[in-house]
Amino acid sequence: MTDTRRRVKVYTLNEDRQWDDRGTGHVSSAYVERLKGMSLLVRAESDGRFQNIDTLIVWSEAENYDLALSFQEKAGCDEIWEKICQVQGKDPSVDITQELIDESEEERFDDMSSPGLELPPCELSRLEEVAELVASSLPSPLRREKLSLALENEGYIRKLLELFRVCEDLENREGLHHLYDIIKGIFLLNRTALFEVMFSEECIMDVIGCLEFDPSLPQPRRHREFLTTTARFKEVIPISDPELRQKIHQTYRVQYIQDMVLPTPSVFEENMLSTLHSFIFFNKVEIVGMLQDDEKFLTELFAQLTDEATDDDKRHELVNFLKEFCAFSQTLQPQNRDAFFKTLSNMGILPALEVILGMDDVQVRGAATDIFSYLVEYNPSMVREFVMQESQQNDDDILLINLIIEHMICDTDPELGGAVQLMGLLRTLVDPENMLATANKTEKTEFLSFFYKHCMHVLSAPLLANTTEEKPSKDDFQTCQLLALIVELLTFCVEHHTYHIKNYIINKDILRRVLVLTASQHAFLALCALRFMRKIIGLKDEFYNRYIMRNFLFEPVVKAFLNNGSRYNLINSAVIEMFEYVRVEDVKSLTAHIIENYWKALEDVDYVQTFKGLKLRYEQQRERQDNPKLDSMRSILRNHRFRRDARTLEDEEEMWFNTDEEDLEDGEAVVPPSDKMKSDEDLMDPISKFMERKKLKDSEEKEVLSGKASLSGRQSPSFKLSFSSSPKPSLSSPPTASLHPGSPGSPSSPGTGARSSPPTAAVTTKGGLVGLVDYPDDDEEDEDEEDADSKEESPPLSKKSKLSS
């Protein structure tokens, strides 16, 4: 039979930082003349070729701390090796830079395949000597290597186990204590070949027996009794392959040795058990592979899971087996894990989980949830595709994703541990970041449309049921925990989804319902509600803003802020930060809404400048709103005076020359045909007032200047006064120069033109003259005014020159 002590698997690290299986062979070590040093040789089982593994650099940082660098390419290994040798002052052509202890040891290590250490005869009287030899070899890597080779070549472990049985029969406690130290030391040698012997079917129970007799304990442990009587191997589905059965037994026992039998390793011993971890790891990989290849086994497993005739105990065992099976799959490499979950999907694992989640057994549902989490974390797209196909055949109540939501809502754990796990899975499923988009279909659009149509009403049901009044109808801790989870998921949707969540919030009035939670006695729930609104405001979406203003949704926020009083806590800070965001980002619609509706409640808050800053923003905004109205009036006036449409210019000039001077002297202006649709107030009044201003300039200048001191409002260096369309008395002046705000075309007779200025006009001081209309082209006006002074007796000509210029 082929010697399996040196049978190994060769792994290389790929670009994805995963280990690739390069094949199986038999390893040996020898001195290679070409490389001037020791090398590992792996003889492949398939073709018998030798492969030199020369991309590994191994060194020791401390006595019991070994490190290794494994390179993908030899060139990289040689480059780093040369740098190491350069630092140490060594010749890069050699493969060993370690200073050997003495010439005799160097000679003994020239041939690593020969035993480098002589072991005492395996006798009862020499056990103490053997224990001392093992203990003295552990600190030195070279002595550990020599001891390992000696134990392998002489079959020493089997002889030690024979002595164990003798000592146990004789109740030789001293010998049993020495054997404990010896076997523990052999574990710390960290050698796979020794583990293969120790964990074989005929040896493993004796090894566990040796580890029962710890010298530090007054009585031996009873590990073998537990493994043989208490621990029972349950075959939920009969396993016909004997090799698979043996591998499962071995893995369980070795895992038990690692977790229960061996003492907790010290800091210096942790790295000396890495091979034991690897042994268990690769055993699990083999078990998963063998079960995955057994189609008959998996078919029977899923058939019994979904069979209604299966009793609860049996189904419980089946679900636990499947859960452990999925847990083992986490040890697989990515490509093997792909094949594993694809196999489970083809076998119908998702329909089976749907059946299991509909059962009343809490433990079974918990195991099914764990299995579902493996599937979601590995491939959420597979789960999404299944639930969308399922929705075409089943009602909403029995959809898999709705079952998950219902289990989250009905979690009986006071801390809602299961609900938190399920909420994380739902977040993964609705996260657009892991959704695929192809040329033929867009998973994001399809799944989100499905989710908001079939599932969102189930998720939000507890929220809507608990927020029908101004305060939450149920305010106990567990209910608040659940509502907090729901609001957190809705907040996630606001951030990552677009029109789906927007339509849902506005149509179902979700924000108003969420803000009811600000009245909860539990601060964490009130903060969740504030975070939800803050996320919506942070989008700066006018659809949301109009929805907030239309329903006065800042009111519960302001109430919560005022009810919090002067306490400096998270609620206080969260509310202030929300208003500060509106101020800093200058969200104009919300700023006006807040000041116009809630300023009286907030004006006394002066320990921060947020609300006063909002008021200032509002006033600046109103001022900017007034100026565009003024600018639009100026534009209208300029258009009628200077910028006539080129197509109507000739007709207008002809109408002007056909107009009688007497009519013009009366202050009436001719309205061109193109502007007949506009009101007489808009067109005639400004022009007539403008001409009257020229005739009465000197007298008006005195009156305006005399009333200047009594004007109220903001005054800029250009001394502009704006009038709003609402009848607010913002100005006051002496009776002789009273200004009455009104509509832009308020009628006035020529006889009163000297006493009243045109509405929406601005009083401007420039160069010692006061004009009632401030046009940007002042130079042109000045020239016209000089012409008017020189031709006061013929005002119609002056008007004509104005309109035709």
Spell out the key features of this protein.
805 residues, alpha+beta, two-stranded antiparallel sheet, disordered N terminus, PH-like_dom_sf, EVH1_PP4R3
Structural account:
This protein has 805 residues and is α+β, with helices and mostly antiparallel strands. Strands 1-2-3-4 form a 4-stranded antiparallel β-sheet, with no helix packed on it. The longest helix has 32 residues, at 610-641. The termini are far apart.
The whole-number mean of residue pLDDT values reads 74
Shape: elongated
Q: For the largest beta sheet, what order do the strands appear in spatially?
A: 1-2-3-4
- Distinct helical segment count: 36
C-alpha termini separation: 117 Å
Q: Low-confidence runs (pLDDT<50, min 5 residues)?
A: 1-5, 46-53, 61-67, 99-115, 640-649, 659-684, 698-781, 783-805
Radius of gyration: 45 Å
SSE class: alpha+beta
Most strands sheet = 4 strands, antiparallel
Fraction of residues in helix: 55-70%
Proportion of strand residues: 5-15%
Number of strands: 8
SSE map:
Elements: E1 7-13, E2 19-32, E3 37-44, E4 50-52, E5 56-62, E6 65-70, H1 74-88, H2 103-108, H3 127-137, H4 141-153, H5 156-170, H6 173-188, H7 192-198, H8 204-210, H9 223-230, H10 242-261, H11 274-293, H12 295-306, H13 312-329, H14 334-347, H15 349-357, H16 362-378, H17 380-391, H18 400-409, H19 417-429, H20 443-454, H21 456-466, H22 477-496, H23 499-508, H24 510-515, H25 523-538, H26 542-550, H27 555-564, H28 570-584, H29 588-602, H30 610-641, H31 649-657, H32 661-665, H33 680-695, H34 697-707, E7 764-766, E8 769-771, H35 778-790, H36 795-804
Antiparallel strand pairs: 1-2, 2-3, 3-4, 5-6, 7-8
Helix pairs in contact: 3-6, 5-6, 10-11, 13-16, 15-16, 15-18, 16-17, 16-19, 17-20, 18-19, 19-22, 21-22, 22-25, 25-28, 28-30, 29-30
